[in-house]
Amino acid sequence: MNAGSKILAFIDNLPCSIINAEANETLCLTSASNTTRSGVLRMHFDSGFRQYNGVFEYVDDPTIESADSGVAGLVKIPKGIPAGGVKISVIGTNLGYVQNPEMYVYYHDKIFVSQCIAFNHTNMICNSPAVEVSADTHLDAEHPPMLEYGFLMDNVMGVQNLSAQGHKSFVLFPNPMYEVFEEEVKYDKCDYLIINGQDLNRACQESDVTVQVGNSFCNVTSLSRRQLTCQLPPPPPPVFDNMSLQNKLELPEVTVIVGGGVKYRIGKLSRV
């Protein structure tokens, strides 16, 4: 398809700008249409033109009805942390038509972008963007900054700057802080593990947090402002040294992973 020095593409009479042309494939960017319509794809080469037998359809632009994170049933507000990766549930229309939907926020005149996945035309999930916050900046959890946000969807202007269109602003909370165990080794025979911290659920919910115990996972069952509770996997057989003392080097380490990958090493756990 890249034979010849010049290639032009049209949907009816609307130009489709050539982005890349290979031997068997050409990529072009469609022009905006002032109405929904069906059209025929035509390509012009030096030697003539070809017409695609199928029909290209212009559909209504996607719209956003709501975007929220955190506990279901509360006020629908999109929230995030500097580390990013907090799940944002998005409801709208025609979302599935967009090839590479993205979410963005503005912070201190810089744009930060993350990827989204559309499950169908009405439901989409996004990870909140990671936001660069300088080391000397203190984010106040009680009075967090409110940011402009929106979505990048094939140049559709109606899904950008949603905070200026009656939607709630994006709220940037500080990263949660998880506390290490008070002892070098935490001895606990219970099936549930409690980890303390601060601001744990300001933006995050259970599905945004992963707890690893060695090579296994601790299923997060509840998350409050200052505590995380998870159900431990079955304990592995204990390892003892030649003096019949439990080998601390072989004990599993507890690690909390939040959002976009920020890790907190909590300490070693013994269940003997």
What does this structure look like?
The protein is an all-beta fold. The chain has strands at 8-11, 14-21, 26-30, 37-39, 41-45, 48-51, 56-58, 63-68, 79-80, 87-93, 102-107, 110-118, 123-127, 146-147, 149-152, 170-172, 177-178, 185-187, 192-198, 209-213, 216-223, 227-231, 253-258, 262-270. It has three domains: 8-58, no CATH class; 63-172, Sandwich (Immunoglobulin-like), CATH 2.60.40; 177-270, Immunoglobulins (Immunoglobulin-like), CATH 2.60.40.10. The chain contains no helices and 24 strands. The protein is elongated, with a radius of gyration of 26 Å.
Essential attributes:
mainly beta; Immunoglobulin-like; eight-stranded mixed sheet; six-stranded antiparallel sheet; 0% helix; elongated
Task: Summarize the topology.
Elements: E1 8-11, E2 14-21, E3 26-30, E4 37-39, E5 41-45, E6 48-51, E7 56-58, E8 63-68, E9 79-80, E10 87-93, E11 102-107, E12 110-118, E13 123-127, E14 146-147, E15 149-152, E16 170-172, E17 177-178, E18 185-187, E19 192-198, E20 209-213, E21 216-223, E22 227-231, E23 253-258, E24 262-270
Parallel strand pairs: 9-16, 18-24
Antiparallel strand pairs: 1-2, 1-5, 2-3, 4-7, 5-6, 8-10, 10-13, 11-12, 11-15, 12-13, 14-16, 17-19, 19-22, 20-21, 20-23, 21-22, 23-24
Please summarize what this structure is.
With 272 residues, this protein is an all-beta fold.
Count of extended strands: 24
| C-alpha end-to-end distance | 68 Å
> Structural class given helices, strands, pairing?
mainly beta
Instruction: Going across the biggest sheet, name each strand in turn.
Output: 17-19-22-21-20-23-24-18
Question: In CATH terms, what is the architecture of the largest domain?
Answer: Sandwich
Q: What is the element string, with H for helices and E for strands?
A: EEEEEEEEEEEEEEEEEEEEEEEE
For the record, the count of structural domains works out to 3
Q: What top-tier CATH class of the largest domain fits best?
A: Mainly Beta
User: What is the radius of gyration?
Assistant: 26 Å
The pLDDT mean sits at: 88
Helix content: under 10%
Q: What ranges have pLDDT less than 50 throughout 5 or more consecutive residues?
A: none
Q: What is the number of helices?
A: 0
What is the approximate shape?
A: elongated
Residues in β-strands, percent: 35-45%
Q: Give a short account of the largest sheet.
A: 8 strands, mixed
